[in-house]
Amino acid sequence: MPEKIHLKIKRQDGPDKPGYWEEFVIPYRPRLNVIACLMDIQKNPVNAAGKKTTPVVWECNCLEEVCGACTMVINGKARQACTALIDKLEQPIILEPLSKFPVIRDLMVDRKAMFEHLKRVRAWIDIDGTYNIGPGPRISEKVREWAYELSRCMTCGCCMEACPQVNPRSGFIGPTAIAQVRRFNAHPTGAGEREARLEALMGPGGIAECGNAQNCEKACPKGLPLIKSLAELHQETTLHGVFGWLKR
Ligand code: SF4
Questions:
Q1: Which of the listed residues 72, 109, 154 should we mutate to test ligand 1's pocket, taking the one with most ligand atoms within 8 A of CB?
Q2: Domain range 112-247, CATH class
Q3: What pLDDT sits at residue 245?
Q4: 62, 123, 125, 136: which could form a disulfide with 180 (CB 3.0–4.6 Å)?
């Protein structure tokens, strides 16, 4: 059993500041997660050289792998800090911010781009009134099963981190938003916006920029069926591009 926990953290004092590494050693306690270690450092911000430093900045919220806010790169893999247990990690534990989003400070990044992509593809169901209109249309059990899987997306960004097409040169919207098009188009009310969603995927940075690397599904902590969603939407957008004008 180790007596200490050794962390090596990639830090950055602000969006336009240079990155640097700082190491911390804290007392071992069993069953800690990465968030608990960061909280220990926050309470006593002294680095491994014994020098007083600034507390490390990170983001977290639910602490049960539902919100995605604490996503960071831990020992080279993008994952949630809340479910990263120290007893299962090799030391030194290396913490870095996600590389596909702008750093705000230290381990905290700005994931706004993903939410903008969800807006672009209209990843919601329009309501047709604020009054009680009774139960909505029924969904078959078969569709509900896979649509539920897609609804578990927490917009964490692990799939974006793993995707080589998501980079500063491409503008590719990535698997997160594309998978949500499949989910909302399958909903009986959401299907009213099906064509608008497909067209949003057909523009610059859309599905045509997917390189079929297939890293995304392996990286997704919720096991979303991303590869199948991408394949189906490749087909649907192609058919919509060829025959969509007939409906107008
Ligand atoms: Fe995270 Fe998976 Fe959603 Fe990508 S699809 S944002 S990896 S939960």
A1: 154
A2: mainly alpha
A3: 73
A4: 123
Cβ neighbourhood burial of 112 (10 Å; 0-12, 13-18, 19+): exposed
The residues of the chain that CATH labels 3.10.20.30 are 4-109
| 174 close to ligand 1 (CB < 6 Angstrom) | no
For the record, the structure tokens of 237 come out as 């957008």
Cα-flanking dihedrals φ and ψ of residue 4, to 5°?
-130, 160
User: Which residues of the chain, if any, have pLDDT below 50?
Assistant: none
Cα separation of 61 and 63, whole Å?
6
> Which of 86, 88, 81, 85 shows the shortest CA–CA distance to 6?
86
Dig out the tokens for 232 from the structure.
């189906």
126, 189 in Cβ contact below 8 A? yes
**111, 114, 150, 158: which to mutate for ligand 1, most atoms within 8 A of CB?**
158
Report the amino acid identity of residue 93: I
User: Which CATH code fits 4-109?
Assistant: 3.10.20.30
Whether this model's pTM surpasses 0.90: yes
The candidate with the shortest Cα–Cα distance to 6, out of 51, 31, 37, 33, is 37
What's the number of CA atoms in the CB half-sphere (13 Å) around residue 182?
27
Q: Tens digit of pLDDT for each residue in 94-104?
A: 999 999 999 99
Helix 194-202 and helix 175-186, axial crossing angle in degrees, nearest 10: 160
